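Most newcomers find our protein records easier to grasp once they have seen one. Sequence and backbone structure share a record, each on its own labelled line. Nothing more is needed to start thinking about how sequence determines fold. As an example, a complete record with its sequence and its structure tokens follows.
=====
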Amino acid sequence: MPPESGTVYPVGLRLRGRSVVVVGGGRVAHRRVAGLLEARARVTVVSPEVTPALESLAAAGRATWHRRTYRSGDLAGAWYAVAATDDPAVNAAVADEAEGARIFCARADDRAASSVWTPAVGRQGDLVVGVHGGGDPQRAIGVRDAIVAGLTDGSIRDRAARPAPGGSVVLVGGGPGDPGLITVRGRQALATADVVVADHLGPQPLLASLPPEVQIIDASKLPRGRSMAQETINDLLVTHARAGRRVVRLKGGDPFVFGRGYEELQACTAAGIPVEVVPGITSAVAVPALAGIPVTHRGLTHEFVVVSGHLPPGHPQSLVDWAALGRLRGTLVVLMGVDTAPAIATALIGHGRAPDTPVAVVTDGSTPTQRALRTTLADLPATLTQHGVRPPAVWVVGEVAGLTAQG
């Protein structure tokens, strides 16, 4: 039967600790080595030159690099081989040696001459999806991507992957608000949830996509408004988990960046509840970035500090050293600091920050209503009033706030 028929025998190779030889050091070799290392194979690369990434892997001891051309006998002891050079004659020699030694060999330049075809591979935890496209790699990739996307968003439900009975909690950082900015692991957790305890700053559109049997609990904390007590949230997580449910605590940003995530972890741990933390993209970095503002820039700043502005300078419960922050030369990112911005600006100027220091204020970051305002530290209070700025907003102090796309 001709190779283009796509007739193959699908099998998963368990290569952990087994020798694999990759001949070639270019982009194709790099991709193959990455997958082989994920399978915990002992990888040897034979090539006079390799990509910088492969060189880094070899320097770290994760792969062995023979810095020379291929020689007959290089496959001795191997369980699997990859021929991925730019020279068809070398690839043919590797394939011939593999055939003689009964070693399966993937030849990158000639599928018909390969004894094995590499499928399009997707991974979701310990679930591995491999697709052969009947001789058409692009077809295999398209089907693979559709399956992985379905597993990620929950449209393909992998109920067998649910944890053992007894209940658990996953603390998920949902990112700055755009549902596309949650991590893959966060989407996976939501796809298998029985109960979701959600903040208003989390990616709300994802809640609408959950199956109707998933219980959604609104645990929002509105600035100086309606708010569910943290103790109540902790009790909800523990109670539902003890009832055998898989609970996802969905927050905006990152659970451990002013998100009280560690308090929730402590409560679950004290109650003997298994708990997992899924980091999220913090709005302290993501929201300025979405507005074209880097928190660091070569030659301009070597530091950035993230501070909570929910308490003004001088408040007896404030833990912020505003005098030290006023002496900083780098970037200052203020979260939860809309109402306290006038007092903070005054304190920073009073402790040494120049009144004309650039400031950027980004509201509703990552959402369709996002907007960015440019001002100075001295003019910040008037700018907020003039434009009616309300939470959620992130503001950035420092030279980076004055950068434009042109530099």
